[in-house]
Amino acid sequence: MSASNQKNSKMAAVEIAGTVGVGCFAFSLVALAVLLFVIGVPYWISSPAARDVHRLHYWFASGNIIGLLNGILGTVLMLIMLLYSVRKWMNFLAWMEFLGSMQWWLRFHMVCGVMGPVFIILHGAMKMPSGSVGIAFWCMILVSLSGLFGRYLFGHFPKAAAGRRLDLQFARESLSELRAQLVAETRDATGDQVGEAITVARELHDEPKTFVGLLMLDLEVRRRIDVVKVLLWRAGLPTNVRNRARRTLVSQLRMKRSLASWEVARRLFRYWHLFHQPLALAMYMIAVIHIFNAILFGGVFKTLMGG
Fold it and tell me: Which residues lie below 8 Å from residue 300, measured CB to CB, with a gap of 6+?
């Protein structure tokens, strides 16, 4: 095996291990959050007056052991989420590729960005915070929601198989290669269904100008993918040929979607940065003040030590 093949094989193994790891990490966090929620429901639905004497108050109140641990876990998740930014800044180092692709790090970033606020909400004992903590809370919610929106926009940029973003020219060349590949895969096919499937993929010409246009384009691409699958199934192709043709046509549709939505997605992504980053900065600054206050005046260490 050549050195290049060995390197690609190692990177593929790292990618698979990373994907499995992120999946297990996300599943563990979700399972823990669901367990805590189910156990704590009787406490959270009780009236404010009844909470202080509730049997779960000793555990689930914000300043008590489980409430504090929820806050610590949520804060840690929101902090390690920043590792994605560090990985982006260090992307110019070749050896960083063995730490996983940016696509993998983005998944990890999203898991932390979604589950961190969940545990912060559990830490707050399902009560609406006020004052500076309330400001940090709503900043956190907006950061999390805007992060999901940013991920949606990012999905419209052309990407290679490894998740790397492509420039427009290379994306157009990739689309031409996919078309040539499909011709080679279906040259022995008979019937009109394959030709109809190719036409369905080829005749996607929408060019969105707004966010609503992006949504409509996504719906149209989803509809065409379903039509392509049905047509290829009806064509009676051998299973391996049908699967290869389906993957190629779906890749064509997604690449055309990315090319068509490039300009509007890039413009919206630029505006998104202006909204997302200041909110995140404000959230972290207020959270630091809250943590210092809890440590100095809230008796955090005493509670954690069982005092």
Answer: 68, 294
Taking Cα atoms as reference points, which of 166, 257, 278, 165 lies closest to residue 215? 257
DSSP string, the chain: --HHHHHHHHHHHHHHHHHHHHHHHHHHHHHHHHHHHHHHHHHHTS-HHHHTTSTTHHHHSTTSHHHHHHHHHHHHHHHHTTHHHHHHHTTTSGGGGGG--HHHHHHHHHHHHHHHHHHHHHHTTT----HHHHHHHHHHHHHHHHHHHHHHHHTTS-B-TTS-B--HHHHHHHHHHHHHHHHHHTTT--SSHHHHHHHHHHT------SHHHHHHHHHHHHHHHHHHHHHHHHTT--HHHHHHHHHHHHHHHHHHHHHHHHHHHHHHHHHHHHHHHHHHHHHHHHHHHHHHHHHHHS-HHHHHTT-
Q: 43-55 pLDDT, tens per residue?
A: 888 887 788 888 8
Domain boundaries, the chain: 3-161+276-304, 168-269
241-253 confidence digits (pLDDT tens): 778 778 878 888 8
